[in-house]
Amino acid sequence: MKGTRPLTASEVAIVADTFDGTYAIRNRCLFMIGVSTGGRISEL
């Protein structure tokens, strides 16, 4: 599989702001940890 480009800071902010609902804080935290550590979605 060919790699993809990393998200820009503005794209990260846009995605982080879209979480809502009962588990919004948890989901936002998991997303930010993944972005900060370079994690892959399959590693969650």
Written account of the structure:
This protein is mainly alpha-helical. The protein has a domain at 9-36. It has helices at residues 9-16, 24-37. The longest helix has 14 residues, at 24-37. The mean pLDDT is 89.
Topology:
Blueprint: H1 9-16, H2 24-37
Short note summarizing the structure:
The chain has about 45 residues and is an all-alpha fold. The chain contains 2 helices and no strands. It starts with 8 loop residues before the first helix and ends in a 7-residue tail after the last helix.
From the N-terminal CA to the C-terminal CA, the straight-line distance is: 19 Å
Number of helices: 2
How many beta-strand elements?
A: 0
Any low-confidence stretches, pLDDT <50, length ≥5?
A: none
The class by helix and strand makeup works out as mainly alpha
Could you estimate the helical fraction of the residues in percent?
40-55%
Mean pLDDT equals 89
Keywords:
44 residues, 50% helix, globular
